[in-house]
Each structure stands twice: as C-alpha cells, then as structure tokens.
Design brief:
Elements (H helix, E strand, L loop, with lengths): L2 H9 L4 H9 L24 E5 L4 H6 L6 H12 L7 E5 L6 E4 L2 E4 L4 H18 L3 E5 L1 H8 L5 H4 L3 E3 L5 E5 L2 H6 L3 H22 L3
Parallel strand pairs: 1-2, 1-5, 5-7
Antiparallel strand pairs: 3-4, 6-7
The protein binds iron/sulfur cluster.
Iron/sulfur cluster binds next to helix 5.
Length: 209
C-alpha cells in the first residue's frame, strides 16, 4: 500500500458519527461556503434500505436534517402508503450542502453540477460502505448519477433493481420534488402511483432475507 493510500485509509471515517463530522468540515467543493451546514444522512446504522435524494433544500439546510421540507412530506406520505417505516430507512442526499441562488430574499434551489456531484460522491460512497444497505433507492437524476457514476435516464431504468459499479444494488425512481412541480392533477396522480410502485419493489427487495 502506498503512503497516499495509507493516508487516505487513515482519514476515511469509520463510523457514521465520524462521517457527519467530516462532512461538516469538508472543503472538497465550494458549496460549503454558501450553506448553513452540511446535512448528513440519518437512520439506523445498518438499515436495509437507503434512500438518496439530490441535495438539502432550504428547510433541510436550516434544520440540519434530510427531507424535512415539502418534498420530504411527499416522501413521508409515499413511504407510509408503500408500507415502509421511515424510521427503519437511512435517508440521505447525494450532495451534502445546499446549493442555491438568491432571488430577492428567497434562496432558490439550484441543481448541483457534475463536479459537485463527483466531489460529494466521496462521502456518499463511504456512507454506503458503512450502512451496507441491501438496496439503495436513487431519488432522481442527481442521486442516480452519483450512485452509478454516469448519466442515467430515469425512464429507461426506473423501478428495476440494478447492480451498482462499486458493489450492492440500486433502484432508480423520481425525486419527490418532481411531483410538486407537475401542474396537471392527472399527471400528478399517474406519477405518484408509479412512484408508489417503485417503492413497493424496493420494499420487497430490501425485506428479502
Ligand atoms: S457538497 Fe459535499 S463535497 Fe461539497 S463541500 Fe459539501 S460535503 Fe464537501
């Protein structure tokens, strides 16, 4: 093992607590400069199911917890209807700091760029190695890109359990914020139903012994 590999090994967090601290002092990309804090993943240390979203939103950035804003409420409702107990799931984001732009006094969400996703994949990968979920659910394109290390077209792969390049399995579906952006009630109902179907596939896979 080279000196560099050895240093890397020594610096790699070995617990979720150490990971949270490391994420909060991370300077791997510029997003830490504009956010209140890093928002680490939360859930049981060895949850069978890990849900990965895009990045914290305004509420998550202020509160320091993932999926506590409007999209989180959609996710909670869907999890309940898919008979998945959120307390038994590890919930996190592909990018740990909130990226936004100011519009007057409002902080509007801005999608992370490929460099930021790649920089934060370092933490995401460690998180998956520590939790070792049976299944990762990538919510949306940013999470899917982080997990599969390439651009993923959601509609081509959604709802299927696929092997992940660095180990384990993942299923891709939409991000719940997508449902909030749809205008037509009919579209919302159709997409929500499909989202539930995807979550049910995930539950069935993760509950296999
Ligand atoms: S977004 Fe991720 S990589 Fe960038 S500073 Fe925050 S924790 Fe580090």
């Amino acid at each position: 093992m080279s000196l560099f590999e050895q240093q890397l090994r020594e610096e790699t967090p070995r617990s979720l607590k150490a990971l949270r601290e490391a994420e909060n002092s991370c300077r791997r990309c510029n997003l830490y400069k504009f956010a209140t804090q890093a928002v680490p993943g939360e859930g049981p240390a060895h949850a069978p199911l890990m849900l990965i979203g895009e990045q914290p939103g305004n509420d998550e950035d202020l509160e320091g917890h993932p999926f506590v804003g409007p999209a989180g409420r959609v996710l909670d409702k869907a999890l309940q209807e898919a008979k998945i107990d959120r307390k038994q799931v590890f919930v996190t984001n592909a990018v740990k700091h909130f990226k936004h732009e100011m519009r007057g006094k409002r902080r509007l969400h801005k999608r992370p760029d490929p460099g930021e996703i790649e920089a934060c994949r370092w933490w995401s990968k460690i998180e998956r190695e520590l939790v070792k979920p049976k299944l990762v659910v990538a919510l949306g394109a940013t999470a899917a890109r982080s997990v599969f290390e390439r651009v993923i077209t959601i509609n081509k792969v959604r709802g299927r359990v696929l092997p992940v390049p660095d180990g384990g399995n993942a299923l891709v579906t939409i991000h719940p914020s997508y449902l909030l952006r749809l205008q037509e009630e009919r579209d919302k109902e159709r997409e929500y139903a499909q989202f539930l179907d995807d979550l049910e596939v995930a539950r069935a896979f993760a509950s296999r012994s």
